[in-house]
TrEMBL record:
<dbReference type="InterPro" id="IPR005636">
    <property type="entry name" value="DTW"/>
</dbReference>
<protein>
    <recommendedName>
        <fullName>tRNA-uridine aminocarboxypropyltransferase</fullName>
        <ecNumber>2.5.1.25</ecNumber>
    </recommendedName>
</protein>
<dbReference type="InterPro" id="IPR039262">
    <property type="entry name" value="DTWD2/TAPT"/>
</dbReference>
<dbReference type="Pfam" id="PF03942">
    <property type="entry name" value="DTW"/>
</dbReference>
<comment type="similarity">
    <text>Belongs to the TDD superfamily. DTWD2 family.</text>
</comment>
<keyword id="KW-0819">tRNA processing</keyword>
<feature type="domain" description="DTW">
    <location>
        <begin position="21"/>
        <end position="218"/>
    </location>
</feature>
<dbReference type="GO" id="GO:0016432">
    <property type="term" value="F:tRNA-uridine aminocarboxypropyltransferase activity"/>
</dbReference>
<keyword id="KW-0808">Transferase</keyword>
<dbReference type="GO" id="GO:0008033">
    <property type="term" value="P:tRNA processing"/>
</dbReference>
<keyword id="KW-0949">S-adenosyl-L-methionine</keyword>
């Protein structure tokens, strides 16, 4: 009985109120202790081009992702987000017209992709612009969306070349040449609008987010390519990924 009484006394001493929840930023939905909003541009950027994200539903659930930075850093209407696993869908109002437009280009490393640097630049005093279409998700998710969406395979496909490695060091990339959605959009906008400042402004919140996460216990993630080359990759590698890694190694050499 003495033990039961002691346990009951311990329960009686527990606070009746629920524990305080972490304060969350209403703008980026991140905990205020790791909020990157102060690193957004004072005035949203208003480039001539638009960014169109085809987002896999699972991407929205990730705690660390880069699409919200694009959405908040660019002016209203300059970052459009459509969610799904196949595009376009009846609920994607206006997307079919965007994807079928001659101004639309798909940033995707297919066998028919050309370097984005071969495209005409966009000047501030011209009416020319591009709709930069990106698939937002993991590499397997992006590949599935691409294969399941015939309209994407008919679009002009471009890829980035001669870029540095990803700064998104808190998330594993397939190869050393892969970039996050934000980095891809930022680099493409900077190249097409001939304004390097666009890239640096858009990447400031990403740099801050990575610093916050590393300071709160996260670790730096090397690419799968790096881990396999150095024999530190903990998972078994399938045939498709193995082939991708071998091709990446050949390209680097």
């Amino acid at each position: 009985m003495a033990d039961d009484s002691s346990a009951w006394d311990d329960l009686m001493e527990l606070p009746a109120d629920p524990p305080d929840m972490r304060l969350v930023c209403l703008n980026c939905s991140r905990p205020q202790s790791v909020c990157w909003c102060p690193f957004l541009p004072v005035s949203p950027l208003n480039p001539n081009c638009r960014v169109v994200l085809l987002q896999h539903p699972a991407e929205e659930k990730r705690s660390v992702r880069t699409a919200p930075i694009l959405s908040l850093a660019l002016a209203p209407g300059k970052c459009l987000i459509f969610k799904g696993k196949k595009f376009p869908h009846a609920r994607h109002e206006g997307l079919a017209d965007i994807l079928a437009s001659p101004n639309a280009i798909l940033l995707y490393p297919s066998s028919t992709s050309v370097s984005i640097e071969t495209l005409d630049l966009v000047s501030q005093d011209s009416e020319k612009f591009y709709d930069l279409v990106l698939i937002d998700g993991t590499w397997p998710q992006a590949k599935t969306i691409f294969n399941n969406s015939p309209i994407l395979r008919n679009m002009k496909q471009v890829t980035l070349t001669n870029h540095e490695g990803s700064r998104f060091v808190i998330r594993t990339q397939p190869t050393d040449k892969c970039l996050s959605t934000l980095e891809t959009a930022a680099k493409a906008l900077a190249l097409l609008e001939n304004c390097q400042e666009i890239q640096e402004i858009l990447l400031k919140p990403l740099n801050a987010m990575c610093d916050f996460q590393l300071n709160h216990g996260a670790v730096t993630h090397h690419s799968k390519e790096f881990c396999i080359q150095n024999q530190i990759y903990p998972k078994l590698v399938g045939k498709r990924l193995s082939k991708l890694m071998r091709n990446a190694c050949k390209d680097n050499n």
